[in-house]
Write a structure and sequence with these properties.
By secondary structure, the chain is of the alpha/beta class. About 40% of the residues lie in helices and about 20% in strands. The chain is built from 9 helices and 12 strands.
């Protein structure tokens, strides 16, 4: 079904992932470190990459940065650590999902399938197009969002976000003043029933608030529920 690049310096981990992926009908190519992964991505196209963080030659974060210069291939990052710093760093360099070791190979395959379904259907893109040709301005134009062009301006200067930050921001903006549960946001923005905890969403909210600076005040946390983009 899909051609997957599995990058991990532990042959045992690569073997386990390959076994389950091939059982699901996927083709697997292996790389033992980040440097090898970058070289392979320069020569070949893959549908999805599963990448470890701690590796010799070139770590997973650095490898992701290099790959993102030439490819938008979805990346699932593996890590023996579950610290928030690692998740934030991973999402900032452009990964699509984060899995902590030890992991369930079955869950990893479910996440793989879910990401590929999202890539094919791109439901999050439709969220940004729910109000075509609409420019939303808040705080007397201090925060400006072009819903069609997917552009965001703060105090007259265009800011850059990760693709998922844009997806999340425009979905919140399209549904402003509406309480949105974590489950609703994960389903609509990520495009699938999320396998795992809600820390992925919370991490992206934190990154989005950082990008918005003083305008992060519009994103209100609803304790025990989720979030709301509130016009204050």
């Amino acid at each position: 079904m899909y051609h997957i690049l599995v990058v991990d310096d532990e042959a045992r981990i690569r073997s386990i992932i390959k076994k389950y992926a091939e059982f699901e009908g996927h083709q697997v190519t292996e790389a033992a470190d980040g440097m090898e992964a970058v070289l392979l991505c320069r020569k070949n196209k893959y549908d999805l990459i599963i990448m470890d963080i701690m590796m010799p030659e070139l770590d997973g974060f650095s490898a992701c940065r290099e790959i993102r210069k030439i490819s938008a291939t979805p990346i699932i990052m593996l890590s023996a650590r579950g610290e928030e710093y690692d998740r934030i760093n991973g999402f900032e360099v452009g990964i699509d999902d984060y899995v902590v070791k030890p992991f369930s190979p079955k869950e990893l395959m479910l996440r793989l399938d879910a990401i590929m379904k999202r890539v094919k259907s791109s439901p999050a893109d439709s969220a940004s197009n729910t109000k075509p040709n609409v420019i939303i301005e808040l705080d007397n134009g201090g925060l400006k969002a072009d819903m069609t062009a997917r552009l965001v301006f703060i105090d007259g200067e265009r800011i850059e976000m990760s693709p998922k930050e844009y997806d999340l921001f425009f979905y919140l903006l399209s549904n402003r003043n509406i309480a949105l549960s974590r489950e609703k946001l994960l389903c609509e923005v990520w495009g699938y029933d999320f396998y795992g905890d809600a820390r992925t969403l919370d991490t992206h909210i934190k990154l989005l608030r950082k990008s918005l600076g003083r305008y992060s005040k519009y994103i209100v946390t609803l304790r025990g529920v989720g979030y709301r983009f509130e016009e204050v």
